[in-house]
Amino acid sequence: MTQVATPKEPYPGFAYHQALDNMGGNTQLMVRLAELFLRQHASDHLRIAAALQQQDRSEALYLAHALRGTAANIGGMAVHDAAYQLEILLDDGDDIFQASTTDLQEALDEFVSSLRRLIVETARAQRPTP
Questions:
Q1: Is residue 1 part of a domain?
Q2: Residue 72 forms part of a structural domain
Q3: pTM of the model
Q4: Cystine design at 110: which of 13, 55, 67, 120 (Cβ 3.0–4.6 Å)?
Q5: For the chain, what percentages of helix, strand and coil (3-state, to nearest 5) are there?
Q6: Residues 6 or more apart from 54 whose CB is under 8 A from it?
Q7: Range of the domain at 107
Q8: What are the counts of helices (DSSP H) followed by strands (DSSP E) for the chain?
Q9: Tens-digit pLDDT profile for the chain (130 aa)?
């Protein structure tokens, strides 16, 4: 059986090639979605933590679910996985204080950093050379 080599991902915590394929190779679309994600979701772990602190399970679940789907759509698979694990904890009816956002925060921090780097590098690559 022949295995197809997959290209090495250039950004930590970011399935760049998969996301680019999902967007039909449109780098500009990816950059626009990355900017939108940063504006709307970069601090979602804080919003989820606040909901947990207020014992608002439904709000924490809603935020984790929305983050999970949005991150997966643009290649944030570690964020997706961490948000999913948090959803499971909250859905199981466990003590709400057992739910930790640490893994989610770490995954989100790495993904946000990679998205910012993507935006900067894409802008640099598109600048005309003198």
A1: no
A2: yes
A3: 0.86
A4: 13
A5: 70, 0, 30
A6: none
A7: 56-124
A8: 6, 0
A9: 444 445 577 888 999 999 999 999 999 999 999 999 999 999 999 999 999 999 899 999 999 999 999 999 999 999 999 999 999 988 887 666 556 788 899 999 999 999 999 999 998 888 776 6
